[in-house]
Amino acid sequence: MRTVNMHDAKTRLSALVSENKPFILAKAGTPVAVVIPYNEYKQSVAQTDQRFGFMPEIEVPEDFDTLMANEIARLFGA
Which top CATH class is 2-75? Predict the structure, then answer.
């Protein structure tokens, strides 16, 4: 992956981004950030996004917060 100094990146940002390739942004030769095309970022997020982490098959019903409210009220004598 190509490393670009901060000063060079400021003057050539449009050209760097239009190449549609990731690059490392460095300040005084020290890497500080990685710039990647949005499509690569979007794909990496989609691959790691899981509902409930270790329980992806769980689905929460829309009425979860009012589920069985009448039954609960009856049991508490309301």
Answer: alpha beta
Helix (H, G, I), strand (E, B) or coil at 70: helix
Exposed / middle / buried, residue 35 (Cβ in 10 Å: 0-12, 13-18, 19+): middle
Q: CA–CA separation, 4 vs 53, rounded Å? A: 36
- For the stretch 14-24, pLDDT in tens is 999 999 999 99
The side-by-side arrangement of strands in the sheet containing 23-27 is: 2-5, 23-27, 30-35
Give the Cα-Cα-Cα angle 12, 17, 22 (nearest 5 degrees).
Answer: 115
CB 24 within 8 A of CB 31: yes
Annotated domain spans of the chain = 2-75
